[in-house]
Design goal:
Layout: E1 3-4, E2 9-11, E3 21-24, E4 32-35, H1 38-59, H2 65-68, E5 71-72
Antiparallel strand pairs: 1-5, 2-3, 3-4
Length: 86
Amino acid sequence: MKLYRLPLVMYEPSEDTGGKYMAEIPDLPGCRAWGYTAAEALENLQSVATAYIESYRDRGDPLPPEVAAVATDEPEHNLSEVLVAV
């Protein structure tokens, strides 16, 4: 099993996001998910990203270089990142 530490972008609910939170992984084009809460959007995104990466493997296609570069076999204690804008 590989672990992927992928950056994500979370969008606040707006007209553009259908009034829901939207999360996406820019390194996986088109990989995005929505939810009524930020936590739900993130949970949905993890499922979508898993299916996205599995579909690459099933077809035998190489992952985008940005994604392949962050793969690891060893779990880390801190797998999340936070961005604070002041």
